[in-house]
Design goal:
Layout (H helix, E strand, L loop, with lengths): L3 H25 L6 E5 L2 H4 L12 H6 L17 H14 L4 E5 L2 H4 L11 H16 L3 E7 L5 H7 L8 H16 L5 E6 L1 H6 L11 H23 L1 H4 L2 E7 L2 E4 L5 H24 L4 H7 L8 H7 L6 E4 L3 E6 L8 H5 L1 E4 L16 H15 L5 E6 L8 H5 L2 H19 L4 E7 L18 E4 L5 E4 L1 H17 L1
Parallel strand pairs: 1-2, 1-11, 2-3, 3-4, 4-5, 5-7, 6-8, 7-10, 10-11
Antiparallel strand pairs: 8-9, 12-13
Helix pairs in contact: 1-18, 1-19, 4-6, 8-10, 16-18, 18-19
Length: 483
């Protein structure tokens, strides 16, 4: 267990961090103020995997294949937020969290997945009840339409899901249903979460890295832009909402900061990960270096598509967790996505690691925000940090409830976000991943990201961790300061 003396030291450390953060925030308050929130996704938390008409998702397929998930767990129950969302809302209300990023399960709303298919009204009633409960609790919902849980029927019928040309019409039809039934209850939308991951790490067969990532990304961008166009033309006049897309990126620094090739390699990695999507969203076309290195394997936008994609965000949503040291690679002819990037990546030995073995480098989020703004955003739209968090090894409840490593992580990264604001960046929101421990994809339930501990089982139990109380104090103190 954790003895009293050690806890006293930790509490003193947290108090100092808290004071430093508040003083920092007070300095920048005249420039901007962050809305602080938490985030989850439907598949990772809902459970109820086949209830009320929901069909299979691609991840229901994945997590039921023996040996594919490292701890052999499934998301059949997860944190059971489908049934226990009122408990999640009660926790947020108790701790003063007023901004909640969530997702809707496509396979619940449209069990058949496709354009023109029947709407599952039980799912509509469920999500409306949830959104209404959030409103009653004074919590603003931020709704993601797709968070890595494509209906499996699209893979089965079309063999490739988003690889199929009809994907755009399927997604736009689904988005239209959501805007229609939920748009009066949420002012903020996201189309896709992390299309880079969906494109590069897609595991649907047949899978190859020569052209498929580029075609997938192209279709995600077109589906996003089509949904945004639909919202702006059909719903904005009455709903007045905003819409964007969540993009993931790591920060990269040159392994040898005096070597021009390493400097270019570090930039190239960020461009191939973030700029791949950011440049079309801001300018209507892919980065020049991608056109040069990928050549004819990179799809081309028509003039009409360029206009459709350009400006199809009301804010720039960024997910970030860790950073790399990057050196130039030795590939002479690109045949795959990774060949095209042509870098070698490493972590510094001095960097501390999370339970995902990702390095903890707070300055990475600052430098990435600056790079993003300098190269693409240029203060044309506000930036939101829509995911940032840490997996901590928590073998028992006592360790989980005293998660000082998570507090240290949040403190470091939030300080760096606010440093970027102080330097003039227009950053409006910060969401910690995650509200609760969740099913972490290939890692199952073994990796814990939550500010709230989940005791997994048939009836999952929730207990707020120290990080939740720490985060709450920051939010509530700032609210009192503003008032």
């Amino acid at each position: 267990g954790i003895n009293a003396e050690y806890m006293g030291i930790l509490k003193m450390k947290w108090a100092i961090q808290y004071l430093v953060l508040l003083l920092s925030l007070e300095v920048i308050m005249s420039k901007n103020f962050l809305d602080y929130g938490v985030a989850t996704s439907a598949f990772q938390t809902e459970g109820a995997w086949l209830e009320d008409g929901k069909s299979f998702t691609i991840w229901d397929d994945n997590d039921h294949v023996k040996g594919l998930i490292i701890d052999n767990s499934t998301a059949d129950i997860a944190s059971d937020s489908y049934h226990l969302f009122h408990q999640d809302i009660a926790i947020m209300k108790e701790y003063g969290i007023k901004h909640y990023r969530m997702s809707i399960a496509w396979a619940r709303i449209l069990p058949n997945g496709k354009a023109g298919s029947k709407v599952n009204m039980k799912a509509v009633e469920h999500y409306r009840a949830m959104l209404l409960a959030l409103r009653e609790a004074g919590i603003v919902p931020y709704v993601n339409l797709h968070h890595n849980d494509l209906p499996a029927i699209l893979r089965i019928d079309f063999l490739a899901g988003a690889y199929d040309e009809e994907f755009v019409s399927h997604f736009t039809y689904y988005a239209d249903i959501c805007f229609k039934y939920f748009g009066d209850l949420t002012p903020y939308w996201f189309t896709f979460d992390e299309p880079w991951v969906l494109s590069v790490y897609d595991r649907m067969e047949p899978h190859e890295l020569n052209t498929k990532p580029y075609i997938l990304a192209h279709n995600y961008l077109l589906a996003h832009a089509a949904a945004v166009k639909l919202y702006r033309e059909k719903y904005y006049s009455t709903q007045k909402g905003q819409i964007g897309i969540n993009l993931l990126s790591e920060m990269c620094w040159p392994l040898n900061e005096t070597n021009p090739e390493d400097i270019e390699a570090a930039k190239r990695h960020v461009i191939f990960q973030l700029g791949w999507f950011a440049e079309p969203l801001m300018t209507g076309d892919y980065p020049a270096i991608m056109k040069t290195l990928v050549g004819d394997r990179l799809p081309k936008f028509t003039p009409e598509q360029k206009e459709l994609v350009k400006g199809s965000i009301d804010f720039f949503a960024l997910n970030h967790y860790f950073s790399w040291m990057v050196a130039n690679g030795n590939v002479t002819k690109g045949e795959t996505y990774w060949d095209d990037i042509n870098v070698t990546k490493s972590f510094k030995d001095s960097w501390k690691r999370t339970d995902m073995n990702w390095p903890i480098v707070p300055e990475g989020i600052h430098d990435l925000l600056v790079f993003l703004n300098d190269n693409w955003v240029k203060n044309k739209v506000p930036i939101w940090v829509t995911e940032n968090g840490v997996a901590v090894k928590e073998p028992d409840l006592a360790t989980a409830l005293n998660d000082h490593k998570r507090i240290d992580y949040l403190f470091g990264y939030i300080m760096q976000v606010n440093k970027a604001i102080e330097e003039g960046l227009d950053i409006r929101k910060y969401f910690s991943w995650s509200l609760v421990d969740n099913f972490e994809w290939w890692s199952g339930i073994a990796k814990r990201f939550g500010l709230t501990h989940i005791e997994y089982g048939e009836h999952p139990k929730r207990t707020a961790k120290s990080s939740m109380r720490w985060y709450s104090r920051i939010i509530n103190q700032l609210s009192q300061f503003l008032s």
